[in-house]
Amino acid sequence: MQARFKKALQNSGYSDSVAQALPLRNSEKIFVVETLMRGQALLMFGDWGVGKTHLALQIKDEIAGSIYLPWASPVGDFVKALAGYLSIDPTRQSNGRDVRKTQQELLVEIGDELAKTKPVLIIDKAQSIPVTLRNHAEQWIDRSVPILLVATLPQGRELYLKFPRWKLKPLSYWDSYRLVKELAIQKGVELSSHQIRAIASKGNGNPQLLLRAVNEKSIDIETEVDAATDWIDLTPVVLVALCLLIVLRYIGQGVNNSNLVIMGGLAAVVARIGYMLSTKVSKRQAQIK
Fold first, then answer.
1. Which residues, at least 6 apart from 169, have a Cβ–Cβ distance to it below 8 Å?
2. C-alpha to C-alpha distance for 54 and 62, rounded to whole angstroms
3. Cα–Cα nearest to 21, from 181, 170, 168
4. Using CA of residue 255, residue 256, residue 259, residue 262, what is the dihedral sign?
């Protein structure tokens, strides 16, 4: 079972190359460690590849006795693995023989043990955890268990209601530049300052994308700049247009021109409906996808 969870760790986006390149995220690590050491719970979220798993593993190494466990289905295996970390026997005596405890029995014992010993529990890929187990996690923080959930949250979905949320932001440009430079040295890739700057600026602060770009350079693949979808807020433009249409309507009323009044009113309604349906248009921005 431990091998299964090691494989889950490898599939969670963690990269030894990124982790060993630079001691990134030091201020973020201090913030999260101090939060957990005060007995607080936290949900750390961010985009794919932004460095959540790397930071979570740094936090695990920083806090003695902490438990790091990436989510891996099915639920039963995850519960048994967590029980194993807490030294909870998965069996009980019944009529003189060993009987496996039910999942619910294990969860109750896990909650009691966590509340008693209060180890820092770090659960990665927490967005994939089913509702029943999420409910138990929220019950554990009610018992003052310090828990760090690491997740890539679907936009607009409230998966965990009781956990304070903290977003891990992308790397700064200069951290990205330093990371690309160090990765290139590790992999023996010769990059000019111009090439390093280009990769750093197009990677949008995402360590995994920066690593991918360096890997592509190492095998002579030219990274193409994809067309990404970003958004421009047209709210000010629409508001100005609505004001002009209202002015047009008032002018029609002032000169007693019913045609202008009707046209201004209809145009205002159409503009309002258009604004409600969509106030954003896509623009092109060079980045690595």
1. 46, 50, 205
2. 13
3. 181
4. positive
Tell me which range, 9-13, 92-96, 238-242, is most confidently predicted by mean pLDDT: 92-96
Output phi, psi for 233, to 5 deg: -85, 115
Rounded-to-integer distance, Cα 238 and Cα 280, Å? 11
The pair phi, psi for residue 198, each rounded to 5°, is -65, -45
pLDDT (tens digit per residue) in 108-156: 999 999 999 999 999 999 999 998 899 999 999 999 999 999 999 876 6
**Which residues have CB under 8 Å from 48's CB, separation 6+?**
13, 152, 206, 208
Contacts of 6 (CB under 8 A, 6+ apart): none
Q: What are phi and psi of 246, to 5 degrees?
A: -65, -40
Cα 14 from Cα 20, distance rounded (Å)? 11
What end-to-end distance do the CA atoms of the chain give, in Å? 34
Q: What is the pTM of this model?
A: 0.68
